[in-house]
Structures are given as structure tokens and as C-alpha cells.
Amino acid sequence: MSLVIIIVIVTVAISWQANQNLMLKDRMLFVPYLIKHDREYHRIISHMFIHADIMHLAFNMLSLYSLGSMFERQLEYNFGFQLGILHFAILYLVGGIFASFFSYVKNQDNPSYRSLGASGAVSAVIFASILWNPDLKLMLIFIPVPIPAFLFGPIYLAIEFFAMRRGNTGIAHEAHISGALFGILYVIILDFDRAKQFLDLIF
Predict the structure, then answer these.
(1) Of the residues 15, 46, 116, 163, which has the maximum number of CB atoms within 10 A of its CB?
(2) Answer CATH for 3-202 from 3.40.50.1370, 1.10.443.10, 1.20.1540.10, 1.10.340.30
(3) pLDDT tens, residue by residue, 79-115
């Protein structure tokens, strides 16, 4: 069984359980104030395994499975099974942590801020996949036309950036952007030639 499938199964199971048990869900939320002042460090990771509702969960897990399964196999092919799995685990878990860093810095003294979901980690996987496969065809929900990955990436980041600047969307756009940047940096570290190929396609 692939690591992606394990992550999906574990995340679906924990998300379902947390939505049945609101006390558990509250203990797993990403709350920078409690991480800083009460040292509840588990929240740095636990929030990646819970989701607001079935649509939130389905969107993240379908995105992870559709691109993550392919990218996991590519890492295994290029680096061997064990090292490939390790790289994917680092990409997902550390990407999710990195994606929350900006929100933590911004809200560490704000007791009312809460967030949840694997969007930052999934964003890291998506953008690592985009950099690795710039010719891949992807679609945005509101643009049902296949777009080459090397165009999809900048368009997606621009949308997230303007949504973050506008604010009041109820979505942690900064986590999506930070996760994407981690995915890009991770691939640059793994294989700089991939980044050069991506830039060659754009310019």
C-alpha cells in the first residue's frame, strides 16, 4: 500500500472521528495562541488530519490522491523505494508544518484564531508535482479546461495571493501559498534541473 493511500485513510478516519467528537476536534485545531502560551505543540501537526466538513476533506484528499500517487511513484523510481517514500513523507509533513508558519507568526497572540485541514501539505505536494511535471495538464474547478502545469502553477498562486490580500474569505490562503513555496523549494533541492526545465517552459 502506498504512503499516499495510508495518509488518505488515516486522514479520513481521524477527520470523521473528530467531526463526531467536537472536544477531540477542538484539541486538534491549529491555534497559534495555545501553541505559544500553553505549549500545545501537537497542534502544529494534528490540524492536518482534521477538516471542517466532508467537502473540505474530499477536496484535499482527492487532490492529494490524484497528484500525490503519481509523484510518490516518480520519487520511488528516481531515488529507490525507501528513499522515495522518505522524501514524500518529508514533503507532506514538513510542508504542512511550513505552511502554518506564517499563520503562526501572524496570529500567535490572537486567542480567537483557529484553522484546520491538510491544504498546506497538499499544496506542497501539488506544487512539487507541478515542478517535476511541467507538461502535466491540470484544471481549476471554475476553469474546466486542461491547463499545462507550468501555467496552472502561477495562475493558482496569483489567485491565492489576491484572495489573501482581499481577506475575509474564511480560507487560510497564506497556508496554500506557503505550502506551495515549500514544495517548489523541495524539488529545487532534490533536482535543480527540474526547476530549470520549468523556467525554460515559461520563458
Answers:
(1) 15
(2) 1.20.1540.10
(3) 999 999 999 999 999 999 999 999 999 999 999 999 9
> Distance between CA atoms of 84 and 96, rounded to whole angstroms?
18
* Tens digits of residue pLDDT in 35-56: 999 999 999 999 999 999 999 9
Instruction: Tell me the per-residue pLDDT of 138-169, one tens digit each, with 9 for 90 and over.
Output: 876 656 778 888 888 888 899 888 888 886 77
Q: What is the Cα–Cα distance from 42 to 27, expressed in whole angstroms?
A: 9
Q: Say if CB 139 and CB 145 are below 8 A apart.
A: yes
**149-186-176 Cα angle (round to 5):** 60
Query: What pLDDT sits at residue 140?
Result: 64
Domain ranges for the chain, please list them. 3-202
